[in-house]
Write a structure and sequence with these properties.
It is a single chain. The chain is α+β, with helices and mostly antiparallel strands. It is built from three helices and five strands. It is elongated, with a radius of gyration of 15 Å. It starts with a strand and ends with a helix.
């Protein structure tokens, strides 16, 4: 999670990314299996997108996990419950 800068939702079409499948374009890397909502993950300054159902939920979950991993102290990670 430490490598993820952010997650968001974008509407993309196959025409925007160069067709169906695994595509490299000016928008970054996209796995286009259907047009519409894409979960876009920004990591190490690059975007990776995949067209998925409920991309908003995926983005919210990744952003929440990213924040939680950044606020946990290293000492807290090593404790057991």
């Amino acid at each position: 999670m430490k490598d993820i800068d952010s997650a968001r939702v974008e509407h993309r079409t196959p025409a925007q990314v160069g067709g169906w499948g695994y595509r490299l374009s000016g928008l970054g890397t996209t796995v286009m299996v259907r047009g519409g909502q894409c979960l876009v993950i920004r990591a190490k300054g690059k975007d990776f997108a995949v067209s998925v159902d409920d991309a908003e939920r995926g983005a919210a979950l990744l952003n929440s996990l990213r924040e939680a991993s950044r606020t946990n102290s290293p000492a807290a990670e090593g404790t057991s419950h």
